[in-house]
């Protein structure tokens, strides 16, 4: 069956839909490059400063990268027009959210038990500030694409990008407040991120497509 016949049989796969699918694929590739740099620098800064929130945020970039790979897989080749591929991708996105939460809880418990306290990190501030500016914009574009494609997987990937920006704001606040002696803000932010990851994973599993 030629592509034009498949598109005709599936009205949702119009020329506009296919253009949106190609855009989603390209954005996922660009996001992977961004996240590779962000995660590497964030982990280096977090380990150097003993910031569990910064380490957790950097690791969440790896979870986001997994989401981008899933969307890239979903819109490649014959899977582009496959409802089954969308269902599999949606569940995989949900699992990618749930990978982060237990790590953050265990890491917070370990650092508190060892008495580690976050120290100021210039590199961490720069990296999270860049994410705070760029990631929400990227995420909103993907969420709009998710609505056009009726793709919870694409919408979920965009939500992860938006959350990344929000997490960056929380990590920045924790790094600054730590200089005032409020050391507990850093682990509190990390636990908040774990709760957000669980919630968004549940929404992705149910196929929620953002409408706002």
TrEMBL record:
It is found in: Cytoplasmic vesicle, Secretory vesicle, Synaptic vesicle membrane; Early endosome membrane. Keywords: Cytoplasmic vesicle, Endosome, Membrane, Synapse, Transmembrane, Transmembrane helix, Zinc. The chain crosses the membrane at residues 27-48, 54-72, 92-110, 122-141, 162-185. SUPFAM superfamilies: Cation efflux protein transmembrane domain-like. GO terms for molecular function: monoatomic cation transmembrane transporter activity. InterPro entries: Cation_efflux_TMD_sf, Tmem163. It comes from the Bacteria. Gene3D superfamilies: Cation efflux protein transmembrane domain (1.20.1510.10). It is a multi-pass membrane protein. GO terms for cellular component: cytoplasmic vesicle; membrane. The keyword Glycosyltransferase does not apply. Belongs to the TMEM163 family. This is Cation transporter. The lineage of its organism: Bacteria, Bacillati, Actinomycetota, Actinomycetes, Streptosporangiales.
């Amino acid at each position: 069956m030629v592509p034009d016949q498949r598109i005709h049989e599936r009205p949702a796969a119009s020329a506009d839909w296919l253009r949106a699918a190609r855009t989603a694929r390209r954005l996922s590739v660009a996001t992977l490059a961004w996240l590779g740099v962000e995660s590497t620098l964030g982990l280096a800064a977090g380990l150097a400063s003993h910031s569990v929130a910064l380490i957790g945020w950097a690791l969440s970039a790896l979870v986001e990268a997994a989401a981008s790979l899933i969307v890239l897989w979903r819109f490649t080749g014959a899977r582009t027009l496959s409802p089954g591929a969308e269902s599999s991708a949606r569940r995989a996105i949900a699992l990618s959210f749930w990978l982060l939460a237990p790590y953050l809880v265990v890491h917070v418990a370990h650092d508190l038990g060892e008495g580690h306290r976050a120290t100021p990190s210039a590199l961490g501030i720069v990296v999270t500030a860049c994410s705070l500016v760029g990631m929400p914009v990227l995420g909103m574009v993907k969420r709009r694409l998710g609505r056009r494609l009726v793709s919870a997987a694409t919408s979920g990937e965009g939500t992860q990008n938006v959350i990344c920006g929000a997490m960056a704001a929380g990590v920045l606040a924790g790094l600054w407040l730590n200089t005032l002696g409020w050391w507990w803000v850093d682990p509190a932010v990390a636990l908040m991120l774990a709760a957000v990851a669980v919630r968004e994973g549940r929404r992705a599993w149910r196929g929620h497509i953002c409408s706002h």
